[in-house]
Amino acid sequence: MAYAQPHPRLSVLSTNSQSSSDHPSPTTSSTRFSLPSVPSVSATAVSNRLIAARPNIYDRNLNKTRVSEVSASAFSFLFSEVVQYTQKRVSGINDLERRLNTLGYRIGTRVLELMVWRAESSSKTPKREIRFLPALMSIHTQVWKAVFGKPADAIEKSVENADEYMIIDNDPPIERHISVPRDMSQLSCSSFTAGVVEAVMDGLGFVAFAKSDITSINSYGYSPHPLSSYLAWVKELLLQPDNGPKKPFIISITSSDPAKLRTMVHDIQRLRSGLINTPAHSFIAIELNTSCPNIPNSPPTGYAFPSLIPLLTVLKDEYTKDPTLTMGLKLPPFVYRGQFNAVIDGVKGLCLPESASAGACPFAFFTCTNTLGNSLLFEEQSRRPTPPAKGEDANPFAVPTGLGGLAGDALHALALGNVYTFTQLLREPENSSLSGISIIGVGGVTSKAAAGRMRQAGASVVGCATLLGKEGVKAFDIIGGEGVA
After folding, report:
1. Less crowded by CB within 10 Å, the N or C end of the chain?
2. Cα 90 from Cα 225, distance rounded (Å)
3. pTM above 0.85, yes or no
4. Residue 230 burial (CB < 10 Å; 0-12/13-18/19+)?
């Protein structure tokens, strides 16, 4: 039985310039492919024996498929179907790119697992790259060949950011046969590729936990995701049609440029304005991160607080326009009184006159404290899911960069001191204009007792990161006293 009309996806026509022998077809009465007739019993029996003899895909030797090639047209067709399927289920370009990125991340985790397995099974001295640039070169060459059948064209270092690198592919296979309409000109299907890269980098293990206690060190810098992705995720979560209680989101941002910071705040405000008639409008807060210790040539600005005034003035202006905006500061760990006083004096100078309709202080909370920079753990002090490299590629340190930000139990005492000191300063009569500021206690909250100590020191809210990284969502049961760390 032949198709009466062309198949909407695959319609293969013969040409008059070639003989029918060049276009084998089950029937000769139509130039289109037709469905074959019902097979005979004997043909079915032979076919079943052939299928039974064919090895199951899960029984194949993975090493024998490493040089297998996939039809470029089949790959392009499959990816285009993925994009079209996803496009029908999203609300905008940002959401589409996010979902493609998530799909790429899932593939990246599997590609890395397969590459590691092959390396370990075919080499007497397998290794895992733990240095940053060699890891990028491995992605540029090996991962690209595994996913796209060819290495990328180049790796370039950003001239604007010291910790930013770009992998260049002048002819990305996934975009080779994609035509982006004008109304979606900002769409980049390479967000799929970015997800693959992100998964591989995460899988290489740039975080380590100490053996003796729940202490961690990390060499992370800023998030690889743009602010637009986070805003799309927050919106999706807040608008989920469930009856459960909604929890607030604190969106942590940073910039050294007041103009860029203002743009970021406006982007967040646009999200809030879209939710103005819903309870979710009040569930979004802004945190200015003044304290990331892992950015090359860019020390935490919180240690030079007067240099933050141009940025804080931007936040003050936005608060004056919209007093419903909740904002706070994420601070680095301070070690002497002058550092605490600099923060108090700087924020007091930004308070509004008492006659203003808004509250006196633009800031509602301080997050104390971020990780302690320039910290070092050796490999022998850490526990990691993969064994360390040996020989000339051996790295004696717990994280590839050596130095990183210290968190967890080792930071707890200093974090408690920061929370306590700010709490006492905010209660002093001369700082009455700041009395509305709350403290979010962070640093070594790895047990119910640790959370209790944070509250006793003055924290209104506590947060955890190291415990969450180690235990997953079970961390909240531990802090609540329902589990054991």
Report:
1. N
2. 18
3. no
4. buried
